[in-house]
Design goal:
With about 425 residues, this protein is α/β, with parallel strands linked by helices. It contains 17 helices and 15 strands. It has helices at about 10-25, 25-40, 55-65, 80-90, 105-115, 130-135, 150-165, 180-200, 215-230, 240-250, 255-260, 280, 300-310, 340, 350-365, 380-395, 405-410, and strands at about 45-50, 70-75, 95, 120-125, 145-150, 170-175, 210-215, 230-235, 250-255, 265-270, 290, 310-315, 320-325, 330, 375-380. Helix 2 runs parallel beside helix 3, helix 8 (about 180-200) crosses helix 15 and helix 15 (about 350-365) packs antiparallel against helix 16.
């Protein structure tokens, strides 16, 4: 079996951490047990282009238990946990192509290695594998029955492909499941982003002005957690409804041009490019810390910052100091997602639900092979509801059920004032 990982000697440490994460993933464990008995993925070759973390390893173990042959490649050059990659390759028998800090050529070589496996199902986080199979690797397109997509950015790309008539196979937007984005995007990104910023810098956030760029599910999570740490939180937005929601949630809202000069920390989570650009770098205070927790490293225009700087040096792991004529600006994790670059990504308890949706969506694809036309589909509502029910059960939380009288009331129109 082939693989490309940093150091196979890290495998034991990887296994320990994967098992630790597994304790926090009871829903995925239940699905794994059912998969082992029912083998719903037997005969499928599943190429998973995901952040190579302990949580992903437990998803991969679940897919294997279901009978799939799984190959893994990194979905981001900086998010791989090298001990996990080593464990997947040498302890769990998974061809794994992922090295933390890999350059662009290696990143694409790894994607190509996953394509070489002739997948029947793709599992993406950001749509890079789907995109490769629709461009440089169309030789492998015909064998794919369907795919799944983990993240907002990937779903946006897929919908653009579908609108162009370019998408050649059906893909389930796992991100759109309520048990995914309500929790992963909000509480997962909220906690792991603060974790990344704090691990990288060890700064005190209380009393600091913390600017959150974008008030989608991820931005909401970060704004809440930054407030919880005592920061004075400012939100920037382009959508009136979200801006209004941020105001009513108690945050100050203003354009980035007004926020940049007063900020101590800026974190972007918009999914769009150049949210922080030359005009903003030029107005920042000395010592401002800037990072991104959106999927791609396009939110900060680092080219213009580099042009303004006389020198750039690394001052701590994942912290780069840009020396401007009269000020320093610090950029975390090279502008890549700070929660996975400088920390370990979302905690396992939240990935439990995201990856339960991934596993059951892959099963759904296998069950519906050839029946769905190329398009972007939501996670079936019954699967989404099942994940919520299993998670509550695993947490030991019971909820009420409607009485027959209440049920009748909700379906009738006769009772009123
Ligand atoms: N995306 C965000 N956090 C993650 C994690 N811990 N594992 C895989 N993908 C992630």
């Amino acid at each position: 079996m082939e693989y490309h990982v940093k150091d196979t000697a890290l495998a034991d440490a990887g296994v320990q951490r994967i098992e630790w994460a597994d304790h926090e993933m009871p829903v995925l464990r239940q699905i794994r047990d059912r998969f082992a008995a029912e083998q719903p993925l037997k005969g499928q070759v599943l190429a998973a282009c995901l952040h190579v973390t302990t949580e992903t390893a437990n998803l991969v173990r679940t897919l294997q238990a279901g009978g799939a042959e799984v190959v893994v490649c990194a979905s981001n050059p900086l998010s791989t946990q090298d001990d996990v990659a080593a464990a997947l390759a040498t302890r769990y028998g998974v061809p794994t192509y992922a090295i933390k800090g890999e350059d662009r050529d290696t990143y694409f070589a790894h994607l190509n290695a996953a394509a070489d496996a002739s997948p029947t199902i793709t599992m993406d986080d950001g749509c890079d594998l789907v995109s490769l199979l629709h461009s440089a690797r169309t030789d492998k397109l015909a064998g794919v029955i369907g795919g799944t997509e983990e993240t907002t950015t990937g779903v946006i790309r897929l919908k653009a492909m579908a609108a162009d008539g370019a998408l050649k196979y059906p893909v389930i937007a796992v991100n759109d499941a309520q048990t995914k984005h309500f929790f992963d995007n909000r509480y997962g990104t909220g906690q792991s982003t603060m974790d990344g910023i704090i691990r990288a810098t060890n700064i005190l956030l209380a009393g600091r002005t913390f600017v959150v760029g974008g008030y989608g599910w991820c931005g909401r999570g970060v704004a809440q957690r930054a407030r919880g740490l005592g920061a004075n939180v400012v939100v920037t937005e382009i959508e009136p409804l979200r801006a209004l929601e941020a105001v009513m949630d108690g945050f100050r809202v203003m354009p980035m041009a007004a926020a940049a000069p007063i900020s101590d920390v800026i974190c972007t989570l918009t999914g769009d490019k150049h949210v922080v650009r030359r005009e903003h770098w030029e107005s920042m205070k000395d010592g401002c810390i800037v990072c991104n927790s959106g999927h791609f490293d396009i939110e900060l225009d680092l080219v213009s910052l580099g042009e303004l700087a006389s020198s750039v040096r690394s001052v701590r792991p994942f912290v780069q100091e840009y020396q401007l004529p009269d000020r320093k600006i610090f950029v975390l994790a090279e502008g890549r997602l700070v929660n996975l670059g400088a920390a370990e990504g979302h905690p396992a308890a939240v990935m439990d639900m995201s990856f339960a949706n991934q596993a059951t969506s892959a099963e759904y694809m296998a069950q519906h092979a050839g029946q769905l036309k190329p398009d972007v589909y939501g996670v079936p509502a019954d699967l989404d509801a099942l994940v919520a029910r299993l998670k509550l059960e695993a947490m030991g939380i019971a909820i009420d059920v409607l009485t027959p009288e209440q049920e009748a009331y909700l379906t009738s129109w006769h009772e009123g004032t």
